[in-house]
């Protein structure tokens, strides 16, 4: 039942107290003009108070039929009041038989469906109340009860919605904490077994040389990737830590450097930036060979922007080569890199000479994004 539990218990107590108040009024007025009708109405109120107290906390019963019966019962008791009070209705200080009990359904609707449903419940009960008052001779048409019902429905609905949101955030935080504890536990086990074996294979492969050296290199790459995987922290829902995506490219020949603080972006942004970096590294392997070293550097830029550079020690890009590739239908740079970053509103700059090539990707902060605010805060923290 979660955070709603206290709300349903409070409404049950309110109904019970309102029922007691209605009984006191009934006794003080000697059962009104028609005691049998009056006590019948109170009996219906008492029965529904008991039913609602057990039904609302049960999630499988808390559905539209229960909500509908709740407000219809309140409206019915309210509409039956004139027949019980007879000539006493409209007299100064005389309230309808249900008195304040009719606010119970409004509160229940508000807790179940927040402000809008609370206001709708208030409208239904208020319509019944105004109908009774309009048919009461010489009685002033007062709107105090209507106003109070709407205030109760809207305010309680708003508070209930905030409480549910807080519960969801807390649940998310608990899940993330539990996931991180499990990740830490697995990391300890992996560190004591798998990582040590991979490190041993890398070291022994380098010592033996030949095919064993290639096996050692692969083991070293997998060790680095596994270390980054088990050390990555989960990002908020709907967003991703760009560092986690970039660190997967790290290997014996690719060095990835990122800030200590998270670089949180909306998942689409983070995925596209990482894909552009992957395309740049693919170009390095394709045109510079598997032995060419490369460096990936990610850092926060101005106004929350993200700056990522990919540098290699290859022979550089010949003048006109990129234009020629695009003319020949090869769009590795123009589409996979420039096109991706351009769709995010960013820019790409390419610097190349005989000592190597550097590609700079500048991605602006997504406007109005909570994830972008996290990235901006991370940038300030790293400065």
TrEMBL record:
Transmembrane region(s): 6-27, 39-58, 64-81, 93-112, 141-163
Q: Which positions fall inside the DUF5931 domain?
A: 1-169
Entry annotated with the keyword Manganese: no
Domain of life assignment: Bacteria
> In its UniProt entry, what is this protein called?
DUF5931 domain-containing protein
Gene3D superfamilies, A to Z: Histidine kinase-like ATPase, C-terminal domain
- Per its UniProt record, what InterPro entries does this chain match? DUF5931, HATPase_C_sf, HATPase_dom, Sensor_HK_TwoCompSys
- List the PANTHER family: NITRATE/NITRITE SENSOR PROTEIN NARX-RELATED, OXYGEN SENSOR HISTIDINE KINASE NREB
Output the lineage of the source organism: Bacteria, Bacillati, Actinomycetota, Actinomycetes, Streptosporangiales
Query: Which source organism does the UniProt entry give?
Result: Nonomuraea longicatena
Cite the Histidine kinase/HSP90-like ATPase domain residue spans from the record: 275-365
Q: Which UniProt keywords apply?
A: Kinase, Membrane, Transferase, Transmembrane, Transmembrane helix, Two-component regulatory system
In the UniProt record, does the keyword Transmembrane helix occur? yes
